[in-house]
Structures are given as C-alpha cells and as structure tokens.
Amino acid sequence: MNIKPLLVASGLIAATALAGCSTVGGTFYTASYASVTDAGYKLPAIPKTKVPSQYLRQIVKYETSEAPGTVIVDTSAKFLYFIMPDGKAMRYGIGVGKQGFEWSGTARIAMKREWPTWTPPAAMIRRRPELAQYRGGMKPGLQNPLGARALYLFRGGHDTGYRLHGTPEWWSIGKAMSSGCIRLLNQDIMDLYNRVDIGAKVIVK
Questions:
Q1: pTM attached to this predicted model
Q2: Where along the chain do its domains lie?
Q3: Which of 22, 71, 76, 118 has a 20 to 30 Å separation from 56 between CA atoms?
Q4: Which of 124, 119, 78 is nearest to 100 (CA)?
Q5: Domain formed by 34-204, architecture
Q6: Could you give the residue numbers annotated as active site?
Q7: Per-residue pLDDT tens for 37-50?
Q8: For 184-200, how does the pLDDT look when each residue is reduced to its tens digit (9 = 90+)?
C-alpha cells in the first residue's frame, strides 16, 4: 500500500475528498468503521460515537528516531503508532493487559495471519477451566478473541506469546482488559496489517 500521498500537507484536502475522510478540530481522521465483508465474514460497523475520539484511527505528528515501518505501543496512553515518513504516524486506539498481565519490550513481527485460530495458553486454561474446550484451537470467526487479523511478536527467534490483534469487543479499546496482548478494533487491525511488514520492529512501553 502506498501511503506517501497522505503525508503531503498540501494534498490533505484532496486526499480527504477521495478517501471519504474528515478533518475535525485540526485532526486528520482516516478511519471508516462501516460494516465490511472480508473472507466471507461480515464485520459489524463500529459505533464511532461511542468510542472516544482520541482512539479513532488518525494521522498525527510523531517525532521519533525510529525508522518508518516501526510500531510503537504506548500502553499508558492506550495508543499504537505506525511510524510514517516526515514526522508522522498512523495512530490507533488500543486495549492493553490488565494489572498483572502487562508486557513491555522490543520484538519483531514474525508472522501475520488473517482470521487466525485462537489457542488459549495453558496458564489461561488453568485460570478459566471453561476454555479447555479450545485447547486445540478456536476456529476463526466473528467471536474469536483474535478478531480479523493477528500479528505475532517474536524476540530472539522465540515466540513471546503476545500478539497485536483485532477484537470484537470495541468497547474495550482504551481500557486495560486483556491478558497481555494488544487489541485493536477489527477495522483498525486490518488497516495496520496492510501497512506493516514481516520483520518490523515493535516497541512496547
């Protein structure tokens, strides 16, 4: 996907008209949260008016020494940034790990999966025995906890067990509710999935 045209300040109005985007209070909103059919699944529309506006997908100014294509996750602010050229980033609202399940560090995206299978880890099954039925994996679908897409985080060649993934629980964005993984609105993880490359650096802080 070629995202460079979005970065040209003089072209924002034209890009907005073409993409059906809007500018509110000086913030450039790029997100469409309408219902979408993907791989035979019909994702419901996100009720944008019920999601705090700061958590909607948008292009923001973001100065960093990290290279474009890097993902930076700010767990305290509940934002994920996909670094773009020229001091900009695509920002997404996220849900993060609840107390005791937080994770931070630097990793790489080793795998990308569309409509992934979810397999609860053994520790989660011990906490919630009712999940034992999914020990062999929960099939993809609208209620799957990984949502429409998943990006798998590895460090030192080993799976960290953590993911950047979608969620059907749009109301959890901006909150600390997960078991450590970083969750995005399904429409947002689909957008990020199309932008980020295998091997991309991910910084979670």
A1: 0.83
A2: 34-204
A3: 118
A4: 124
A5: Beta Barrel (2.40)
A6: 165, 181
A7: 999 999 999 999 99
A8: 999 999 999 999 999 99
